[in-house]
């Protein structure tokens, strides 16, 4: 198809990036359409039902931060700057090939960035209710999902039925169930996989083209790990300190935070962040009469710091500490993320009550604080 | 067998050597300079000159340059080492240790003789020894002189910027306005004390048990201002500058 033009600077890109561009291009040449998303609140069932590919677009490196800062303030969340920067510089294949980008009002910075992004791409922003316990919250989010369905139908000239959405929800639930089973393997001591590798795997699920592909990939890894567990007699505990990681999305600071935890005698046993167990355990009631409302209900269970009050996170963390026999909590926040930064107050308190050492870190995508973060994490693990 | 602790900080490297009875037999401070590996070799040659050759000691390295000391048997963070050294120096189990270092300031809560919690500043140099050094340079005096000048201040001014770069321009504009040097010096030392106060809020502390370690523990006016701001006397010890290295040496004596 002649209208699928590669970016101007494509020839200068590294091999991996080139392959990413060609992989999505091939899918589009086969007639697929791509929706870019940013957040675990985005009801991907809608895109599955419409036969669209949905991919995560959260920027995870500071490669394009300087470009983004031409339009965005310096003192802004690095994830927002990176996401915008990658769109601006045409360096992210998924952003570049997205036919539609769906954002949501999960934070003020992102919300306003989407307005700028709208000049480069076709962007639609969902309005997320932020009082999850209000009687209208579920109705509002369900209504927002219906509006999204309209947008998708108009944009791609298709019909999306409730039955298709129900089927998609059943499949997504299956994917969630498998993901949870995988993450629960980390409750073992020794854990069969490093927290770093676990995160990398979960992250790669955001770039699968279909739920079936995702399900197959999780099943494969689950099989391998279970095989490893049964074939190798369980050694006594490793003595590694069992760490729960919570806070902002950490894809862009994984090496600095999780890499450091695991290089200094820790093992991440649970991720409470967006990409981790928090959202994976929010199942949709697929027998509900109104499937869209059931989806809205499930997503509103996510304990995100944008919510007011965010009781779900406060209730969830003590339970996860028990379940995964956590010995230390690392709360990793990104620069200028006010909601998560302020919630460190509560999480510290909760951990003190649970008798588990707690540390909060504020960082960004640069390497300038790598040494200090490493010292702080090493010292934290030494004190456990 | 001797036990050696090396605390390679961003500005100074401290070394403490213990004998079998864990008594200090040698200690020294040298500038870290720009090459940590070279500094480590210098320290090694000094040890040899003291009759402690390479194969006669076990050692633990700490401080930001800890990974650059090739002969160290183990690296332990400065948080744990300062804690351990301070417990030995002050000979008490429960206190809050403030360490104002070259590139970071740490507040360490000690309970039952070990580190319970700590707070350390992020990447910026606000409120650190480096901040004081730069400000002293701007006023054309050395660090000790700066603090002594501050004591003579008649009309206190405050430096509101915590960022070293912004604070420097604030100081320059105060100089331009003809503000008395002693008053500016007071503002600079006070801003360090204020920064420590805000960091103290991150760990629980008892104003009756505050201790200071690090290079600035030999500056009396800083101790006075800190005590005033924190609402309790901040005590120190002539050995406190070596707390990290001493703690590292004690850890070395426990190595299997």
Please explain how this structure is put together.
The complex is a heterodimer of chains A (384) and B (256). With 384 residues, chain A is an alpha/beta fold. Chain A has two domains: 151 residues, Rossmann fold, CATH 3.40.50.11890; 220 residues, Rossmann fold (3-Layer(aba) Sandwich), CATH 3.40.50. In chain A, the strands form two sheets. Chain A has a four-stranded parallel β-sheet, with helices on both faces. In chain A, helix 4 packs parallel to helix 6. Chain B has 256 residues and is of the alpha/beta class. Chain B has a domain of 90 residues: ATPase, nucleotide binding domain (Nucleotidyltransferase, domain 5, 2-Layer Sandwich), CATH 3.30.420. Chain B is 40% helix and 22% strand. A five-stranded mixed β-sheet of chain B has the order 3-2-1-4-5. In chain B, helix 3 runs antiparallel to helix 6. The longest helix of chain B is centred in the C-terminal third of the chain and has 20 residues. The two termini of chain B are 13 Å apart. The interface between A and B is medium-sized, with 14 and 15 residues.
Structure in a nutshell:
The complex is a heterodimer of chains A (384) and B (256). By secondary structure, chain A is of the alpha/beta class.
């Amino acid at each position: 198809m002649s209208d699928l033009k590669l970016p101007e600077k494509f020839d200068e890109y590294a091999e991996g990036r080139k392959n990413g561009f060609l992989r999505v291009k091939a899918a589009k040449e086969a007639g697929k359409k791509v929706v870019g998303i940013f957040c675990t609140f985005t009801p991907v069932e809608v895109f599955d039902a419409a036969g669209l590919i949905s991919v995560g677009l959260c920027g995870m490196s500071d490669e394009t931060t300087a470009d983004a800062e031409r339009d965005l303030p310096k003192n802004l969340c690095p994830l927002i700057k990176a996401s915008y920067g990658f769109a601006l510089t045409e360096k992210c294949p998924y952003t570049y090939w997205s036919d539609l980008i769906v954002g949501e009002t999960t934070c003020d910075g992102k919300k306003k960035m989407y307005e700028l992004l709208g000049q480069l791409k076709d962007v639609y922003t969902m309005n997320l209710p932020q009082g999850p316990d209000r009687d209208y919250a579920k109705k509002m989010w369900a209504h927002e999902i219906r509006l999204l369905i309209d947008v998708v139908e108009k944009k791609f000239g298709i019909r999306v039925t409730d039955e298709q959405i129900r089927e998609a929800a059943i499949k997504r639930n299956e994917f969630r169930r498998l993901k949870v089973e995988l993450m629960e393997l980390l409750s073992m001591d020794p854990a069969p996989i490093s927290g770093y590798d676990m995160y990398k795997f979960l992250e790669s699920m955001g770039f699968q083209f279909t739920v079936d592909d995702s399900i197959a990939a999780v099943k494969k890894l689950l099989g391998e790990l279970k095989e490893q567990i049964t074939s190798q007699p369980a050694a006594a505990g490793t003595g590694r300190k069992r760490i729960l990681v919570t806070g902002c999305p950490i894809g862009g600071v994984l090496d600095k935070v999780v890499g450091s935890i695991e290089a200094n005698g820790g093992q991440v046993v649970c991720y409470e962040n967006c990409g981790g167990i928090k959202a994976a355990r929010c199942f949709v009631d697929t027998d509900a009469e109104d499937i869209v409302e059931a989806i809205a209900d499930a997503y509103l269970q996510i304990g995100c710091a944008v919510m007011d009050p965010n009781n779900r996170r406060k209730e969830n963390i003590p339970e996860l500490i028990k379940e995964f026999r956590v010995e230390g909590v690392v709360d990793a926040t990104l620069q200028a993320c006010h909601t998560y930064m302020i919630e460190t107050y509560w999480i510290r308190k909760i951990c003190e009550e649970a008798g588990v050492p707690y540390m909060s870190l504020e960082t960004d995508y640069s390497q300038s604080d790598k040494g200090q973060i490493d010292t702080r994490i090493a010292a934290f693990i030494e004190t456990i | 067998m001797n036990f050696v602790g090396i605390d390679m900080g961003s500005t100074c490297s401290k070394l403490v050597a213990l004998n079998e009875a864990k008594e200090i037999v040698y200690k020294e401070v040298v500038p870290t300079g720009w090459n940590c590996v070279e500094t480590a070799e210098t320290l090694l040659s000094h040890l040899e000159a003291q009759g402690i050759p390479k194969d006669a000691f076990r050692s633990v390295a700490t401080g930001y340059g800890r990974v650059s000391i090739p002969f160290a048997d183990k690296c332990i963070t400065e948080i744990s080492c300062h804690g351990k050294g301070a417990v030995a120096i002050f000979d008490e189990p429960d206190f809050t240790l403030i360490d104002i270092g070259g590139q970071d300031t740490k507040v360490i809560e000690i309970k039952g003789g070990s580190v319970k919690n700590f707070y350390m500043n992020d990447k910026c140099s606000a409120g650190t020894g480096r901040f004081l050094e730069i400000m002293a340079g701007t006023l054309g005096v050395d660090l000790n002189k700066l603090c002594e000048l501050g004591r003579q201040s008649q009309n206190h001014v405050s430096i509101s910027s915590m960022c070293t770069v912004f604070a420097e321009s604030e100081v320059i504009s105060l100089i331009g306005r003809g503000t008395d040097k002693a008053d500016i010096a007071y503002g600079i030392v006070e801003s360090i004390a204020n920064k420590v106060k805000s960091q103290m809020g991150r760990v629980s502390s008892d104003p009756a048990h505050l201790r200071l370690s690090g290079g600035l523990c030999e500056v009396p006016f800083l101790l006075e201002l800190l005590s005033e701001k924190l609402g309790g006397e901040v005590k120190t010890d002539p050995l406190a500058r070596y707390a990290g290295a001493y703690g590292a040496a004690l850890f070395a004596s426990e190595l299997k």
